[in-house]
From TrEMBL:
Membrane topology, from the record: Single-pass membrane protein
InterPro entries: C2_dom, C2_domain_sf, Synaptotagmin
Gene Ontology biological process: calcium ion-regulated exocytosis of neurotransmitter; negative regulation of secretion by cell; vesicle fusion
Principal localisation: membrane
Domain of life: Eukaryota
Domain C2 stretches: 142-263, 276-409
Family under the similarity heading: Belongs to the synaptotagmin family.
Transmembrane segment boundaries: 6-27
Organism: Oreotrochilus melanogaster
Lineage of the organism: Eukaryota, Metazoa, Chordata, Craniata, Vertebrata
Protein name: SYT4 protein
Keywords: Calcium, Cytoplasmic vesicle, Membrane, Metal-binding, Phosphoprotein, Repeat, Transmembrane, Transmembrane helix
Gene that produces this protein: Syt4
Length: 414
């Protein structure tokens, strides 16, 4: 009788020890995971507020604009990187430093309120050559001026872009005679880094003061990069209006002496720069008797490769507009891992007016991504006011109703 009792006692002690050991191992793994650095690709600074994840504990240590920052965080790629936090004083502000900067004569006439540091900052004459030669037509349009700064942090091996402000933007809202501007920025040619500022409401002179820090870009590669700024106006009820763009090749730009302050005229968006976005084969047929428009999305070819997987998972969104207001939308199925997709999907739209004068149709080719927001590969607009093949195709279906007409179209940047 004693032997089974002893065995039972030892078995109970062994079970308790095993459960305790398992619980301790789980706690250790959980604590180690919580200390890992989040896989951010860049750091976004909004109005002087830094966000460096690995130094933030359970309490937030930065003060201003928490709500606006949480609403406007950019989508982060999945590559890991190392970040660190700069110290602040007791009031939560950054200590003033005196970096090595030179003076740029083109900035002397700027307002002291938004550009107080300009007298200290400078640019070498060789590095401020005009990047885009503006035609006389572009100068007449007067789309405004973009102010920004460039810097390379050798200690952190980071490329820093600060979008300061824009001035003299045109009014995109005809009723209020104002705009709701924001800026998208892309680093070309690989387009791995895409960021955007927050939207500033009802202003033609937006002061963004937002800083984007990109890690993992060697200084030797800066000369091969090009910055592309797209200035847009937010529209709640339809697609955002494109105000213009600024293209900045960094070849010949010297960042070893300190921060570089620059300003560039905003020019009209060049839709012909869309080479490399691929092509879309569309068939249209207008039925004047039933007042319907039949749209067939047939094929896409030569679509660009995605950044991570190497191949896109494309699908097409079709939006029907009446007097710039979207009245209907459709989309195709996703085609997996192919630059040459075959859709063969038909959509029928009821036209709310007689004729196609106020009707336009937009095609957005997107790359499906479960882990993040789907990115626009390219876009195409067909209508009476469309340029190139889009306008020609539309004119043909108006002249020959009840006839199915198919054409290939080059996609523009989304």
């Amino acid at each position: 009788d004693e032997i089974p009792t002893v065995v039972g006692i030892f078995s109970a002690f062994g079970l308790v020890f095993s459960v305790s050991l398992f619980a301790w191992i789980c706690c250790q793994r959980k604590s180690s995971k919580s200390n890992k650095t989040p896989p951010y690709k860049f750091v976004h600074v909004l109005k002087g507020v830094d966000i460096y994840p690995e130094n933030l504990n359970s309490k937030k240590k930065f003060g201003a604009d928490d709500k606006s920052e949480s609403k406007n965080k950019s989508a982060m790629p999945k590559n890991s990187l190392h970040l660190d936090l700069e110290k602040r004083d007791l009031n939560g502000n950054f200590p003033k430093t005196t970096p090595k900067i030179q003076s740029y004569p083109g900035l002397e006439n700027s307002s002291p309120k938004n550009f107080a540091e300009r007298k200290k900052d400078s640019v070498s004459p060789d590095s401020i050559k005009s990047i885009t030669s503006l035609s006389s037509e572009d100068k007449q349009d007067k789309l405004g001026t973009l102010f920004f700064s460039l810097e390379y942090n050798f200690e952190k091996k980071a490329f820093v872009v600060n979008i300061k402000e824009a001035r003299g933007l045109p009014a995109m809202d005809e009723q209020s005679m104002t705009s709701d501007p924001y800026i998208k920025m892309t680093i070309l040619p690989e387009k791995k880094h895409k960021v955007k500022t927050r939207v500033l409401r009802k202003t033609l002179d937006p002061a963004f003061d937002e800083t984007f820090t990109f890690y993992g870009i060697p200084y030797s590669q800066i000369q091969d990069l090009t910055l592309h700024f797209m200035i847009l106006s937010f529209d709640r009820f339809s697609r955002d209006d494109v105000i213009g763009e600024v293209l900045i090749p960094l070849s010949g730009t010297e960042l070893s002496e300190g921060r570089l302050l620059m300003d560039r005229e905003i020019i009209k968006r060049n839709v012909r720069k869309s080479s490399g976005r691929g092509e879309l084969l569309i068939s249209l047929c207008y039925q004047s008797t039933t007042n319907t428009l039949t749209v067939v999305v047939l094929k896409a070819r030569h679509l660009p490769k995605s950044d991570v997987s190497g191949l896109s998972d494309p699908y097409v969104k079709v939006n029907l507009y009446h007097a710039k207001k979207r009245i209907s939308k459709k989309k195709t199925h996703v085609k997996k891992c192919t630059p040459n997709a075959v859709f063969n999907e038909l959509f029928v739209f009821d036209i709310p007016c007689e004729g196609l004068d106020d009707i336009s149709i937009e095609f957005l080719v997107l790359d499906s991504d479960r882990g993040s927001r789907n990115e626009v590969i390219g876009q195409l607009t067909l209508g009476s006011s469309a340029e190139g093949t889009g306008g020609e195709h539309w004119k043909e279906i108006c002249e020959y109703p009840r006839r199915q007409i198919a054409k290939w179209h080059m996609l523009c940047d989304g």
